[in-house]
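#dry-run=false #mode=assembly
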Amino acid sequence: MSERAISREGERWVGAFDATTDPALRSWVDVDPGSDFPIQNLPLGVIETDRSTARCGLAIGAQVVDLARLAEAGAFDGIVPHARVVFSAPALNAFLALGRHVWRAFRERMSALLSVHASAEARTIVAPCLLPMRDVAMRMPCTIGDYIDFYASLEHATNLGRILRPSGDALLPNYRHIPVGYHGRAGTVVPSGTAIVRPSGQVVQAGGSAPAYVPTQMLDIETEMGLVTGAGPPMGTAVRIDDARDLAYGYVLLNDWSARDIQAWEYQPLGPFLSKSFATSISPWVVSLDALEPFRVAGPSQEPAPLPYLRASQSWAYDIAITARLATPRMRTRNQPSQTIVETNLRGMYWHFAQQLAHATANGASVRAGDLFGTGTISGSEPRAYGSLIELTWRGRDPLAIGDETRTFLEDGDTVDMRAVCLRDGVRIGFGELVGTISPAR
Amino acid sequence: MSERAISREGERWVGAFDATTDPALRSWVDVDPGSDFPIQNLPLGVIETDRSTARCGLAIGAQVVDLARLAEAGAFDGIVPHARVVFSAPALNAFLALGRHVWRAFRERMSALLSVHASAEARTIVAPCLLPMRDVAMRMPCTIGDYIDFYASLEHATNLGRILRPSGDALLPNYRHIPVGYHGRAGTVVPSGTAIVRPSGQVVQAGGSAPAYVPTQMLDIETEMGLVTGAGPPMGTAVRIDDARDLAYGYVLLNDWSARDIQAWEYQPLGPFLSKSFATSISPWVVSLDALEPFRVAGPSQEPAPLPYLRASQSWAYDIAITARLATPRMRTRNQPSQTIVETNLRGMYWHFAQQLAHATANGASVRAGDLFGTGTISGSEPRAYGSLIELTWRGRDPLAIGDETRTFLEDGDTVDMRAVCLRDGVRIGFGELVGTISPAR
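#status=ok
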């Protein structure tokens, strides 16, 4: 495997391929070369069909493995404790709580069962558990315990500082010391496809001083990823940064819908609240860090060096290319394709998940299986890599051309579609789609 | 009942007694006159004994009713759907999800079963379900979905503004328009008695500019109450303020432990995070709004009038007297009683729960059964009514005399004990005790 650890980009990669991510690995299940879900991926989600209640599933190509049924057939005996109960649950939480050793053993078992080297007997067990993905509805992958949203892109924080505090320093003094974050609303994290109703709230119109309760006129996206966690140590114990990996299961795409006019009026002194809490969308397939390992890269340097509890012995940045596309109702009527408005990458984030996990538990706060750590808006230094409309349009000053229309913020009927993909040596690990369409205010 | 609605304080009361809160009502279970839990109260919690797993319970005097066992005996047939399942759960969430009509019917049934007018047969059913409270361990009353902490005391917000922004306006411009709040960490809400480990975090020492990771030296209390909710409408639908009562089950005492030095460095621009997330303690018995109804009073007037969606057709203030007491290790060694440091009352809060529920859902955010709405620190206008040490000692400038010691903030081994009680016409509705002791930093 060692020769594959050296990619054509030379020193770009920190992570290496292993037996489950080997580019040469193929599945006996037919997988299109452009699929997000080759055998190297094996993402988990919660599936529901006309014939069955919600249970855990795994994506392979254009098919889904019904893990409840596969567990029933004994495929995880001796590997996943109580596998029948764990995988017949309508959420991944029980699996996430089992910890990294079980996650790894499960991955290796699934890789073996789906590989072209699988025995005829293994194929006979798996084949009846395969469902066409088009027949399956995706639910929330887990019950979210606590949802933290971070602010890990220095470029995003700088842009927001310039826009919101034009007369002050763009970056606040704590930014390079603290992985700044806050708690969002776990109960309104929803899966891809959920309609997003335009929120109403208190807004102070330009030039006014008294607020009105009106539908937001500054409805925005935030292009993010979210880390789904396993269970941490009991309350009172901080997670050491070099142990953070053991708590981190994997990533989803995340769109932290935001109402900028509501935010501007409400956020002092306790932070964003209703401007964010109406909805946060996530993609339904959770891609494990094991699948992402070959795409681990060196992150940006940090100056000043963070405090020792935030210094990791290795980099936890990932080269994940992320796009957001916008389709207006007019474009859909004309059958025009959606237009890319964001092209960014997770690799440039100032703070990585291990720092966020170490920080979030530095005071002894506990982490539960199924907690969600949003990265914060992923913005790069190029304007095309800005992850939100407030940045892309500089708070509406510079409208975006979308086909023969323009946009400052989202209008009713607009659809936002996010995608993320990792590419290396012919392996393509994707995240599926994260889509949401704006419904009119009620 | 009408003559009792007019209390000796004349127009003070807005709420009235009913058949379940009638001061003349007595239980066949012996209840001490000073008990927090007379038959007019009937609070719910989650109990555990040596002989049984956690399940739902109800307090009456110095005894606890095992509701799982009482349901098994058929006491709630036709009243609480799936009562055997609901009450044998280790959390009140399923009961909370059943809604106000069931809550009311359950209350009336329990009142009838425990009343001196109960039949001999009823007593025969209930008696085997009674457990001495001293033999019962109290767990979290419910799994907290989302925890919001508000900032509803104008006096507290003004004090904090004066302390933290001495050169600016004490009250920010949005305060009288918005029931300001933010999301706290649901996973670290813990029941009374849980040890509170002194948190460490990033602190910038006075005169310094770079942070150090050290144990907090400004560990504080926040004297609060918390509203435990039922389930609201689906996402996308705001709760009308005059419907908010239907979503509100009842109150617990709440201590939002806070590390003021960590808070000062971290809270810009996204609000408090690690300064709060290490622990929030609540009392284990949830007192229903039905039990509190006779103690409803007119709240403070609001100027300017809030926006229409925040205007309730009646007052939702409650006259609940709250105290916090402090005992130092030295006092405990000498068998000295704890000393009262806070004497405050919920009635003076600028924003009430119906406004908070209407506001928190004004953007379409949903509410789940078991969400927790903290009031924010309950401070009155008199210094003795300040609900936190940062106010009581004016951020350490004016130490408190505690016995022959002094305190600015909490020291290791200090125990804080909060109590709350409602009194009217001889009826005493109490909340039990909320206690926490500080353990040294790890």
